[in-house]
Amino acid sequence: MIQMSKKVMLICTLTILYLFLIFTLQGVSKSYHKNAKINCDIQNQACSQTVSNTTVTLDVQPKPVKAMENLTFQVTLNSNANTETPFIDLGMPGMNMGKNQVKLKKISPNTFQGSGVIVRCPSGKTIWRAIVTIPQTGKASFIFDVIY
């Protein structure tokens, strides 16, 4: 009899924990969409932002930009600023996806390229962020939609 009540308590506790997690994850999912404002139409064109008087342009090839494919990331700066090589951190707004960094190499005085992969999120979300860091200048955050 005592073992039966322990089993019932365990089942009730696990059920409550499960329901709590479901409602919590739904709240995270809703806030994820609400706070993620797309500012880059990477599927159709390169995107630009200004950081400390430097225009940063990001392009990704091939198009359409799809998850789980080898992609070429290109960053172009409008100035010949003698800066360290920029790099890109890929992630999802509001979610910790782990480190996913694209190392860039200089291919011309103002243009840098590198290869990377946008992974498929288990949640099914398709909004991604590429943070382009230009050492000693600043960061540009590009938020865009990918195709699964």
State the gist of this model.
The chain has 148 residues and is of the alpha+beta class.
Q: How is this structure best described in words?
A:
With 148 residues, the protein is α+β, with helices and mostly antiparallel strands. It folds into two domains: 1-35; 47-145, Macroglobulin (MG2) domain (Immunoglobulin-like), CATH 2.60.40.1930. 23% of the residues lie in helices and 38% in strands. It has one helix and nine strands. The protein has one helix at 2-35; strands at 47-51, 54-61, 70-77, 87-91, 101-103, 105-108, 111-117, 127-134, 138-145. The strands form two sheets. The chain has a five-stranded antiparallel β-sheet with strand order 1-2-3-7-6, with no helix packed on it. A hairpin with a 2-residue loop joins strand 6 and strand 7. The longest helix is centred in the first third of the chain and has 34 residues, at 2-35. It is elongated and about 75 Å long.
Tags for this entry?
148 residues, alpha+beta, Immunoglobulin-like, 2 domains, five-stranded antiparallel β-sheet, four-stranded antiparallel β-sheet, 1 helix, 23% helix, elongated
In round numbers, the mean pLDDT is: 83
How far apart, in Å, are the first and last alpha carbons?
Answer: 52 Å
Helix content: 10-25%
**CATH architecture grouping of the largest domain:** Sandwich
Report the β-strand fraction as a percent range: 35-45%
Strand arrangement in the largest pleated sheet? 1-2-3-7-6
- The number of helical elements comes to 1
List the helices and strands and how they pair.
Layout: H1 2-35, E1 47-51, E2 54-61, E3 70-77, E4 87-91, E5 101-103, E6 105-108, E7 111-117, E8 127-134, E9 138-145
Antiparallel strand pairs: 1-2, 2-3, 3-7, 4-5, 4-8, 6-7, 8-9
